[in-house]
Amino acid sequence: MAATVFRLTPLWFRAVALLFTLWGAAGVSAFYAHVTTGPAQLAALPAYDRAYFLALPGWFVWVYGLATWGGLLGGIALLRRRRFVTILFVVSLIAVVVQFGWVFAATDLIAAKGAATVVPFPLVIFAIALMQLAVARHADARGWLR
């Protein structure tokens, strides 16, 4: 019977994995708020925001779900040190690119609200998605995933 080598992960890795999981939970919470938006919430929105929300294509919610659920499940998989975490973070990153790529290319959101208002947070989301993938690949290269 061969001995299994158990590699402990550094404290920073566990802290980052926990932060990624909490970030993913926040994303899923925002996704849930989006999909459960009802007539009362829509009526409270400014006219542009209401029209924007109602004009979103049907596939958009699926991409949003892939981005957020992929991030949450990836964070959990990173905490559990599972090798498939890389796949989850790749799916999440691709969904983020598709989601915000469509928003910025196919809508007039920047013209209506201004780049300084709408661009920074998607850039943060994209940067975190890149960091998630980089950490997962680093952990895999170090042999911390199983």
Our estimate of the beta-strand percent is under 5%
Helix content: over 70%
Mean pLDDT: 95
| Radius of gyration from CA coordinates | 18 Å
Q: Segments where pLDDT lies below 50 for 5+ residues?
A: none
The string of secondary-structure elements, in order, is HHHHHHHH
- Assembly type of the chains comes to single chain
Report the principal-axis shape.
Answer: elongated
End-to-end C-alpha gap: 18 Å
Helix vs. strand class: mainly alpha
SS field, number of helical segments: 8
> How many strand units?
0
Sheet with the most strands, sense and barrel status: none
Description:
The chain contains eight helices and no strands. It is 79% helix and 0% strand. The model has no long low-confidence stretch (mean pLDDT 95). α4 (58-79) runs antiparallel to α5 (85-106). It starts with 10 loop residues before the first helix and ends with a helix.
TL;DR?
By secondary structure, this protein is mostly helical. The protein is 79% helix and 0% strand.
